[in-house]
Amino acid sequence: MPKHGKKFRKAIEGLDILEQRFSVEEAVKHAVERAYAKFDETVDISFNLGVNPKYSDQMVRGAVSLPNGLGKTVRIAVFCQGEKQAEAKAAGADFVGAEDLIEKIQGGWLEFDKAIATPDMMAQVGKIGRVLGPRGLMPNAKTGTVTFDLAKAVSEQMAGKVEFKVDKAGVLHAPLGKVSFGPGKILENLKAIADQILRLKPSTAKGTYIKGMAVSTTMGPGFRIDSVEARKFVEG
């Protein structure tokens, strides 16, 4: 194991995090109770999925509203025009615009966390796809961020809607909330994400779908979950 500081070593005291595997409940409990940063760390989940994302029909991508939210303020930008701008502002969007908002982003401004767009704006939003895409900010119909129902989309994002996408290695990462939530609320959020990932299982994926899971915090160690326990939690 690489060298770690005193706080990290104390956080894993009595455990062999390289060899031990935990139940979902144990992993969440350890991650929350052994977090040591001075700030309220984010708890994250990683799923190792039995898919090959290089094939489009095995791409796992979606979004889910967490029952307990994420515990942070989300700044929302909405690309829309006409009457929809008033709807977006009334729903609580922080930044609303059309060509003017696109030009602002082209100039280097990116002071927002989530982006929503009406379908009629997507051709223009595509002009800044190279800026938004790599940052995970590009609106997408599959995650509910390309829609004419702006009131619903904005409220979902404000409440803690999490978007996720499997990477090239078949691993999917998602935030579960803050350490201050406690194990109970984190588990409820994890179950919501797990249920959605199970619903999105590609019909072409062969073999074991949930190959592994691990829970960690922003600064803390990762706690790997036993594969049988992981499948039991997701599929149960």
TrEMBL record:
PROSITE patterns: RIBOSOMAL_L1 (PS01199). GO terms for biological process: regulation of translation; translation. One of its GO terms (molecular function) is structural constituent of ribosome. The keyword RNA-binding applies. Keywords: Repressor, Ribonucleoprotein, Ribosomal protein, RNA-binding, rRNA-binding, Translation regulation, tRNA-binding. One of its GO terms (cellular component) is cytosolic large ribosomal subunit. The keyword Magnesium does not apply. InterPro entries: Ribosom_uL1_bac-type, Ribosomal_uL1, Ribosomal_uL1-like, Ribosomal_uL1/biogenesis, Ribosomal_uL1_3-a/b-sand, Ribosomal_uL1_CS. NCBIfam families: rplA_bact. Belongs to the universal ribosomal protein uL1 family. Part of the 50S ribosomal subunit. Binds directly to 23S rRNA. The L1 stalk is quite mobile in the ribosome, and is involved in E site tRNA release. Protein L1 is also a translational repressor protein, it controls the translation of the L11 operon by binding to its mRNA. This is Large ribosomal subunit protein uL1. It comes from Desulfocurvibacter africanus PCS. The lineage of its organism: Bacteria, Pseudomonadati, Thermodesulfobacteriota, Desulfovibrionia, Desulfovibrionales. The gene is rplA.
